[in-house]
Amino acid sequence: MNNFYKKGSFALMNKKVLKVINGEKLSPPPIWMMRQAGRYLPEYRHVREAAGNFLNLCYTPILAAEATLQPMRRFNLDAAILFSDILLVPHALGRDLRFEENHGPIMTPLTASDIRKLDITHAIERLSAPFETIERVKAKLNDETTLIGFSGAPWTVATYMIAGHATFNQAPARLFSYSHPKAMKSLLECLADVSADYLLKQISAGVDAIQIFDSLAYFLDETSFEAMCIQPMQRMVKRIKQIHPKIPIIGFPRGAGIFYKDYAKKTGITALGLDCSVPLFFAKQLQKDLPVQGNLDPIRLAAGGDALDCGIDAILNSLGNGPLIFNLGHGIIPSTPIRHIEQMIKRVQENKINT
After folding, report:
1. How far apart are CA 282 and CA 278, in angstroms?
2. β-strands 5-6, 249-253: how paired?
3. Most buried among 9, 81, 111, 335, using CB within 10 Å?
């Protein structure tokens, strides 16, 4: 059994999430939620108001640490994830960024000629606030709780940079990749290297594992998925593992469909995050090769009641006899009632799967 990173050596200790990533089957499985710090919590809304705007919240370690810790105080979760945003990386590269209420992130669209102007030299020093946030959070967590750091994957971050905002089908970035293939390759390699260095600094600051979000990995054909998602991820993982060869890396290629198999096989990740569209029979096949994480529909969580219980039970019955981290198939939605989260955690933690 491999051991995991802690202060220069690797130790599993009592962290359930790390045990699962190491290949153990736990009953009940560990649980956390993507976007578990956020607007569904009234205490988060108070912190957000105190910060003035979302970027200030991300760049103010005392407030970002508070946001990270809020769900840990309310719920019996097995992991905390750094409160931040995937678009801090392009912001650190010198791109403008603002968040507008009801519209999300807004940037000036990136052109091919802009790529060579990206300020790689000063990017990591501009990202120092999340490292202090990690140190503050780490000091507050008990020895059983895993602290997860994260970044966006190069393709997903590039789609925002090229379009200047969220898009339904990533058409601007896809068109850019066909019209300017060399420029797109250069951009993805830049983002892979800066994001990997950013994650390396998060590891040094104290995270136990990292997750890389390719949240917009859908609408790509086979050739494009290989070039836009798999190859940049390979580059990131290689760069990270040259320094920390045993650090747990969870890859989340949302919407990858059948391409999940190649992604799991080729990228070098340690565990595979599954979106809610992944059929459980297919998830079980993937679980033979890697620990899996997921994949409850966040809308079931918002609905609660029998719909929630049925979704939980189906996942546990299908995947509970292998290495599983119970999670959502995408981030929690802001309208989710807190009592439904309590219902989910109680059902997962009381549902013992026979070995």
Report:
1. 7
2. unpaired
3. 81
273 token code pair: 């995050």
| H helices, E strands: number in the chain | 17, 11
pLDDT tens, 56-82?
999 999 999 999 999 999 999 999 999
Q: What is the pTM of this model?
A: 0.95
The full DSSP string for 140-178 is HS-TT-EEEEEEE-HHHHHHHHHHSS--SS-HHHHHHHH
List C-alpha distances in Å: 27 to 1, 11, 350.
Answer: 19, 21, 9
Name residue 199's amino acid: L
Amino acid at 66: E
Spatial CA neighbour of 198 closest among 82, 278, 296: 82
Q: Are strands 271-273 and 292-296 parallel, antiparallel or unpaired?
A: parallel
pLDDT digits (tens, 9 = 90+) for 122-171: 999 999 999 999 999 999 999 999 999 999 999 999 999 999 999 989 99
Pairing of β 79-81 and β 146-152 = parallel
> What is the per-residue pLDDT for 9?
41
Taking alpha carbons only, the member of 49, 29, 44 closest to residue 74 is: 44
Rounded Cα–Cα distance for residues 195 and 124 (Å)? 9
Q: 10-36 burial string, b = 16+ CB within 10 Å, else e?
A: bebeebbbbbbbbeebbebbbbbbbbb
- Residue 7 exposed, middle or buried by CB count within 10 Å (0-12, 13-18, 19+): exposed
Residue listed under structure tokens 């957000």: 48
Catalytically active residues, by annotation: 35, 39, 48, 85, 160
Give the Cα separation of 290 and 305 in Å (integer).
31
Q: What is the mean pLDDT of the chain?
A: 95
User: Within 13 Å, how many C-alpha atoms sit on residue 137's CB side?
Assistant: 35
The answer to whether residues 192 and 154 touch, using CB atoms and an 8 Å cutoff, is yes
Torsion angle, CA of 90/149/84/230, rounded to 10 degrees? 40
Neighbours of 289 (CB within 10 A): 11
Tokens of 81: 């994830």
With residues binned 3-state (H G I as helix, E B as strand, rest as coil), the percentages for the chain, rounded to 5, are 50, 15, 35
Instruction: Give phi and psi for 206, each to the nearest 5.
Output: 135, 5
